[in-house]
Amino acid sequence: MPLESVLFSISQGFLWPVTLLVLAAFAFSLLSLGGFVVEWYRRAKAPGKLLILPLAPTRSIESLELLILRELEGLRLCSRIAPMLGLVATMIPMGPALISASSGASQGVAQNLAPAFAAVIIALVSASITFWIHTVRRRWLLTELHQLLEQRS
Fold first, then answer.
1. Which residues of the chain are modeled with pLDDT < 50?
2. Phi/psi at 148 (nearest 5 deg)?
3. Of 8, 23, 42, 97, which one has the greatest count of Cβ atoms within 10 A?
């Protein structure tokens, strides 16, 4: 079996796992968006109140920074990994689509490219949502950390 055929077979085996990961990233982004809306509402009702860090007044700054990083890690990972998964989900069907195109089977091209482009769109939407939430929540948490440090002084 030629090396190219082995590589092609291996890459085709990644299509379903990558597609499932793209769907998982999308589900995570929607859940995060719901949590973000709830947190935004709580913050709007109690401006200036510590919501995430109130139970940590005796922790060190380093410990609080780690708490913030842990709190944001899922959003950060999703916003960075989802576009890569979308690219992989787009590239895997390109091989069969190019084979179909070279043989003149336009139906095969459409069957391979439609899900590929849908996957990249879903992945980019997921990344956009989680990046936006990550950015806003990071500002909120760092503001809380600053308030907590001022209260200690």
1. none
2. -65, -40
3. 97
